[in-house]
Amino acid sequence: MKAELTERQAFMILNDLPNIGPITLHRLLAEFGDDPCAILASDRRRLESVRGVGPETSAAVLSWPQHFDLAREEERLAQTGTAFITARDEGYPALLKETHDPPIGLYRKGGYLFEQPCIAIVGSRRTTLYGQATAKKLAAELARLGFCVVSGLARGIDTAAHEGALSVGGRTAAVLGTGLDIIYPSENLDLYRRIAESGAVLTEFPFGRKADRQSFAMRNRIVSGICAGVVVVESDVDGGAMITARFAGEQGRLIFAVPGRIDQPSSRGCHQLIRDGATLLTSVDDILGELNYLGGLQPQPIPAKPGTPPMVSGLSENERKVLTVFAGGAILGADALGAETKMSAPDIAVTLMLLELKRLVVKRADGTFEAAGG
Predict the structure, then answer these.
(1) Which terminal residue of the chain has fewer beta carbons within 10 Å of its beta carbon, N or C?
(2) Neighbours of 181 (CB within 10 A)
């Protein structure tokens, strides 16, 4: 039977073997020419010749039918409209592949293929109204700009982040610490369905896997691994969002933290992150500025509805002032804009950059600017 396995089936089996972590699985794949079927068809001695593979691991590989009901898993995939994807498939998040321990496979519900850059918004389950409102606002603005907002479907900040992205018709993805058939918390079932309709729900765990401390930590490394940056809105110093931030640091991702009240426990983690070097976040402009500095990640914003101006909400006073000058089709250089708005040259330069990122103004070949679509 082992010889008849398809590559995808073999990946599914290896993905769910007990007590074998992603790093060991990647070592095995490297030793067996990236052929998962060859691993399952091997013998004990060959398996244990791989560094980190002992008798317990080899026994799990050789006796996989006792641990994994392949037929039942494939039936569940078909019944629930779920896909099992590997790093070789379209839709496996590109940045996640670059981490040192990516999942060898992901269960995905929803058709979104992660074509857009992703930003994670995470935080406490026990949050304040301020935290919820901030997470929702940031998510809505990021989604409107064309980013996919990633979070973990938990209560509090995660829920607010997903809701914010959906509120503007944007993309959002949820990464679970359980199998796709276990919705936690249960009150987020409707949110789960809405995310799956327009975005994606992901997990590395098979159907029936319940949550535990280890599974949530494993989930957090995927949340950060998918994204170019992680925003922590509210978290105590020992909160799960701090684990996500730690993974983000190890993976070379940008880390942002929203400041809060000094007497609020849910702000302690954010303040610690800021002290440790995270970027203090007060608006989406802080994220755009960091990404622009790195020279990339400028997705296409959500198209505006006919007859309505593009991305005009959430603008700063300077952005509104400059945008007003372009009304009526004006074409102006930086000096002329300064004269019209009475703003300094540095303020004009920063404001134009941000408006370009938001696709509200465009720079012409001669160095002047005009409103997008003008």
Answers:
(1) N
(2) 17
Question: Sign of dihedral through CA atoms 175, 32, 19, 41?
Answer: positive
**What residue type is 326 in one-letter code?**
F
CA distance 201 to 78: 16
CA dihedral 266, 268, 273, 276 (to 10 degrees): 180
Q: Over the stretch 313-340, which tens digit does the pLDDT of each residue have?
A: 456 788 888 888 887 788 888 888 888 8
In words, the CATH class of domain 317-371 is mainly alpha
Q: Where in the chain is the domain with CATH 1.10.10.10?
A: 317-371
pLDDT per position as a tens digit, 154-183 = 999 999 999 999 999 999 999 999 999 999
For CATH 3.40.50.450, the residue range(s) in the chain are: 96-101+106-293
Q: Phi-psi bin for 17: left (phi > 0), alpha (psi -120 to 50), beta?
A: beta
Residue 3 has pLDDT above 60, yes or no: no
**Phi, psi (deg, nearest 5) at residue 160:** -60, -40
26-34: long-range contacts at Cβ-Cβ below 8 A with a sequence spacing of 24 or more? Answer: 26/101, 26/104, 27/51, 27/52, 27/53, 28/53, 28/61, 29/104
CB 369 within 8 A of CB 326: yes
When the candidates are 3.30.450, 1.20.81, 1.10.150, 1.10.10, the CATH number that belongs to 2-68 is 1.10.150
- The first and second tokens of residue 161, run together, are 């982040």
Dihedral pair phi/psi, residue 174, rounded to 5°: -115, 135
Determine the longest span between alpha carbons in the chain, in angstroms.
78
Residue 131 has what pLDDT?
93
Q: Which CATH architecture has domain 96-101+106-293?
A: 3-Layer(aba) Sandwich (3.40)
